[in-house]
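Whiteboard transcription, Tuesday session. T.W. wrote the structure tokens on the left side:
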């Protein structure tokens, strides 16, 4: 399909420049509608805007960034900034790195990462460094862990076992002892279900190529090729990860396109195998918007339910079988210089309700008003209607403060300036055993529309990292520009997503 470019070359000016962009004449349809103003959808719109494609972004919320936004809270001590959870930037994709640098520009910081597991009052490096983990659990338990892992590997070699559940996958990779110590507790806190009810797909997607055997092998005999770790440091916008979305939105607007907030998509209208328009609700009423191409980052389950004519009953039923896990963040403002040195601390103790927290000041000093202050973003994994979700904001803040004071000894009550809670529904697709069949049915239905692409984590019901979600947005835009990319192949490689191997040049020495 030919697309008008309105005279704009691919290297269009970035946000803040004075280049002209496409102008959508009143009453004329935009070439592309993007549903959702999270970083994936905004990436699509940004790339299309640079290519001169008239585009409109529709977002139900009054803000951009979705689950990757940054919230500001003014106090008598000054302004605190909080991400909804922590979103650091790392990727193996050089093109995505270039795009991130272009957008964030002079606000870019490099941050050293220290992430640990809080485990029975002790600390273990995360991702697991085998020597550190074995030291933390002591020589006897370490010997048992190595022995039962060896028995597991021999047993699986003699009689191969089908990996079905999350429990199967973790035991296969790390053995029963390490699974029970380091993976079972936290996983069941995250998902709210026993590990034997969760699909092993999640493990294979999040820890591809990792195992006790490969960790030990790499420690003794390093793998061929230089290993470049993407976990020791990461890029981050100075004033919070939400600035990435905000600056992309600014760029889309500056190039003559439109990011419309408070514009929720109610219906997606189709004729045959093509989408023709969407119906949008705003505070001024409803509006029908027509376009040639459509990109959706709204939850895939919801998308299937709002397509007109309606999807077959079995597709609607399949969409309702797919579930998400929600989160609540409790954001604390403190009169204290630092709580921990960590960028993240994962909390495995079962008697502590929250799952992890991060300290924004450890990412950027600009996230707090001054050096005498710090803050915490504390994450509760929950499901709407459960005992955590139904707690009031006051109860959540008080529960959090009690855990941090009484159970972990991280602060005193007089150091707490205040706190508030943010509820984030549909944060994580739940890979419950058997999810593949209903997901396949929904994707088959949505996939029949040749000018509709779905992207992002919720939009594709795939547990992607931030960079993967943004990559789907980039490739969806490229597809509209005439390229051919299978978005389901994003994050389908077989290596652990935080490791990148670079082949050593012939004759290279052994030193770094």
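and on the right, the sequence the group agreed on:
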């Amino acid at each position: 399909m030919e697309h008008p470019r309105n005279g704009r070359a691919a290297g269009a000016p970035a946000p803040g420049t004075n280049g002209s962009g496409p102008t959508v004449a009143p009453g004329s349809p935009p070439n592309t509608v993007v549903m959702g103003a999270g970083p994936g959808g905004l990436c699509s719109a940004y790339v299309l805007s640079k290519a001169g494609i008239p585009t409109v972004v529709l977002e139900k919320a009054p803000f951009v960034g979705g689950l990757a936004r940054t919230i500001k809270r003014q106090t008598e001590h000054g302004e605190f900034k909080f991400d909804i959870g922590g979103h650091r930037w790392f990727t193996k994709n050089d093109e995505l790195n270039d795009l991130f640098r272009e957008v964030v520009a002079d606000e870019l910081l490099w941050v050293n990462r220290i992430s640990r597991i809080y485990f029975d009052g002790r600390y273990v490096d995360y991702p697991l460094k085998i020597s550190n983990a074995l030291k933390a659990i002591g020589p006897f338990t370490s010997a048992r862990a190595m022995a039962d892992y060896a028995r597991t590997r021999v047993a699986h070699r003699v009689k191969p076992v089908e990996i079905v559940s999350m429990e199967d996958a973790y035991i296969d990779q790390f053995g029963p002892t390490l699974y029970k110590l380091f993976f079972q507790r936290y996983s069941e806190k995250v998902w709210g279900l026993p590990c034997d009810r969760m699909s092993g797909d999640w493990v294979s997607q999040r820890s591809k190529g990792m195992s006790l055997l490969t960790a030990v092998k790499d420690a003794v005999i390093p793998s061929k090729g230089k290993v470049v770790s993407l976990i020791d440091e990461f890029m981050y916008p100075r004033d919070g990860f939400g600035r990435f979305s905000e600056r992309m939105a600014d760029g889309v607007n500056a190039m003559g396109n439109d990011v419309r907030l408070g514009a929720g998509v109610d219906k997606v209208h189709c004729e045959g195998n093509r989408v023709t328009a969407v119906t949008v609700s705003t505070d001024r009423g409803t509006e029908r918007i027509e376009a040639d191409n459509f990109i959706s980052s709204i939850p895939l389950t919801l998308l299937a339910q709002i397509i007109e004519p309606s999807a077959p009953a079995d597709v609607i039923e399949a969409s309702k079988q797919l579930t998400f896990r929600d989160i609540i963040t409790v954001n604390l403002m403190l009169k204290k210089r630092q709580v921990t040195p960590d960028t993240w601390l994962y909390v495995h103790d079962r008697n502590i309700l929250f799952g992890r927290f991060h300290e924004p000041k450890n990412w950027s000093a600009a996230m707090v008003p001054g050096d005498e202050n710090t803050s915490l973003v504390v994450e509760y994994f929950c499901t709407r209607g459960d005992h955590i979700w139904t707690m009031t904001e006051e109860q959540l803040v008080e529960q959090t403060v009690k855990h941090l004071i009484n159970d972990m000894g991280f602060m005193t009550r007089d150091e707490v300036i205040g706190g508030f809670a943010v509820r984030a529904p549909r944060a994580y697709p739940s890979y419950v055993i058997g999810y593949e069949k209903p997901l396949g049915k929904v994707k088959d239905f949505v996939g029949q529309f040749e000018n509709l692409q779905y992207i992002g984590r919720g939009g594709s019901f795939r547990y992607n990292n931030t960079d993967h979600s943004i990559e789907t947005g980039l490739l969806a835009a490229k597809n509209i520009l005439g390229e051919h990319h299978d978005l389901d192949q994003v994050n389908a490689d077989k290596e652990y997503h935080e490791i990148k191997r670079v082949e050593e040049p012939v004759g290279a020495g052994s030193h770094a």
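Someone added at the bottom: The first strand starts at residue 32 and ends at 35.
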